[in-house]
Automatic annotation (TrEMBL):
Residues in the signal sequence: none
Keyword vocabulary terms for this entry: Membrane, Transmembrane, Transmembrane helix
PANTHER family with a match to the protein in the record: ANTIPORTER SUBUNIT MNHG2-RELATED
Name of protein: Cation:proton antiporter
TM regions (residue ranges): 7-28
Length: 119
């Protein structure tokens, strides 16, 4: 049973590395800010979850596993919210390429507002 858990932990670590690589390639290759934020957030959360699962399988400790679940939940909640807020601030600062947007619901909402954010 120990060897099976070690193999599963290794598979989780390799998959986590794969998701980190996919995220890095997406950050490098995607053309605009919103696509890069998507590439930096989604695979990163999944990769971290796999790394934490691999760590829990390799350590085999209930208190550590509970702590790792809290870390995974906190990361899963905060990363998409932070990405959303950065994207919205970038949109307000007019740093988003509007020619690449498929749907643009914020332009009508922000028509009369003063642009905020870094120039």
């Amino acid at each position: 049973m120990t060897q099976v858990l070690d193999v599963l932990a290794s598979v989780c670590f390799v998959l986590a590395c794969f998701f980190a690589l996919v995220s890095a390639i997406g950050m490098f290759r995607f053309p605009d800010l919103l696509s890069r934020m998507h590439a930096g957030t989604k695979p990163q959360v999944v990769g971290l979850g796999l790394a934490l699962l691999g760590l829990a399988l390799s350590l085999r400790s209930i208190p550590v596993a509970v702590l790792l679940v809290f870390v995974a939940v906190f990361q899963g909640v905060t990363a998409p919210i932070a990405s959303h807020m950065v994207g919205r601030a970038s949109f307000r600062a007019r740093q988003v390429r509007s020619d690449l947007l498929v749907v643009d619901d914020l332009t009508e909402t922000l028509q009369g507002e003063e642009p905020r954010g870094a120039p």
